[in-house]
Amino acid sequence: MAGVFSPTANIVTKLVLYGLLGGLVTLAGGAWFFPSTTYATGEGIVQPQPVPFSHEHHVGGLGLDCRYCHTSVEVSATAGLPPTHTCMTCHSQIWTNAGLLAPVRQSLATGKPIRWNRVNTLPDYVFFNHGIHVAKGVACTTCHGPVDRMPLTWKGASLRMSWCLDCHRDPAPNLRPKEAVFDTDWKRTAATPSGEQLMTRYHIHPETLSDCSVCHR
Questions:
Q1: Using an 8 Å Cβ cutoff, are 136 and 208 in contact?
Q2: Contact criterion met (CB below 8 Å) for 199 and 209
Q3: pLDDT tens digits for 62-93?
Q4: Residue 124 — left, alpha, or beta (φ > 0 → left; ψ -120 to 50 → alpha)?
Q5: Half-sphere exposure of 95 (CA within 13 A, CB side)
Q6: How far apart, in Å, are the Cα atoms of 63 and each of 15, 55, 56, 70, 182?
Q7: I need a surface site. Which of 5, 43, 128, 168 has the fewest CB within 10 A?
């Protein structure tokens, strides 16, 4: 009796099965790897803004303190964006007719705030407070990267849950004296208190920092 399937049927079947298996492995690997890519996290990607503000110029060049523009960073959950009159403190006197600053002048004239595009976003189910991090000796650059060297602002870290937990479980390497939190040129020296000493000084307890309720409320 002649066979129902041709001699090559087994080979074709195996190739199809191997192809399906390979596809499933590829999909699973992609699903695992994709969330960590810069495309997914936005890390290192410049966000277009209505005004091409340069932290490199204002912070690195002119030496402006972070708090000059982000006035609520020490006491609030949000760092705050500067109102237009903060920009015009200087730009009513310098670069008064610069085309790049036309949106700033228009904002002042109309009373409508500049619509900046957010660079660092967190899901609605994540609670984050700038003030407590500043109070515990976590520097701006720890999360936001070298802002004093950013001609245009990009996202300095992935802000993924695993990234946050790495610090919450072992905060010591990321701590500095509170008076140095806004110093973008700060370097640790032999005289600097160790991270462990700062943990004691600022009452930081890693054993509780990875509790779900710390960030999810």
A1: no
A2: no
A3: 999 999 999 999 999 999 999 999 999 999 99
A4: alpha
A5: 12
A6: 64, 10, 9, 14, 11
A7: 5
